[in-house]
Amino acid sequence: MLRLGPAGWDYKDWVDIVYPAGVKGTDRLTFLAAWFQAVEINVTFYRPIAPHLARRWSEAVADFPDFRFTAKLLNLFTHERRLPPEEVAAFQAGLLPLLEAGRLGVLLAQFPYSFHNTEENRAYLVQVTHAFPDFPLALEVRHRSWQRREVREFLAEVGLELVNLDQPQVSYSFGKTAWVTGKIGYLRAHGRRKETWFEFGPDREARYDYLYTPEELADLAVRVRELLARAPEVYVIFNNHP
To answer: Is the pTM for the entire model greater than 0.85?
Structure first.
């Protein structure tokens, strides 16, 4: 099973471009489900969601039984690297309706470039798995220090799927892998806009403002086929939504 989709779906600049005029609210999600097999929930990176919202999203794709959601872990857990029990409980409660409905394919732990492969950071990843024992967890790391055979073995041992990346190859970025460390293959495509990758100015989306060429998509497809040969289920999420 190959599931492709965008990162997020509620963007003002998509109106009258992606969505036909008049398509609003959860109808946008229903519209996307007719074209894609997955979508990534971005809002959970910033705050936990209410359970009734997750139920509404699940109902919006009821006509598409193979459709799945992926969701980002709260940035408190990944960027501040703290796991307060009350915050963990609130976060889990918000996504539980999707998990129970069989709609949550992957929970994405996206760490920044500054998160390097160290003993301390590996220990923290173990803590994350213990905090979310019932959720299918996948790890995104962007620094090349993680691109080692022993890291693959570590992730398989602790039960973390690896997120393969397509990102600008600048500085010491994680390279173009096609690893599977569990039962799920995962590829996130961030675009290849090198000149803005490490800029955090007023336009926070500039680093992802990138249009893949047909040749670059063909290059991605080679890696996706490798993932499909190694895993029964593969997610490909495009984070170049601008």
So the answer is: yes
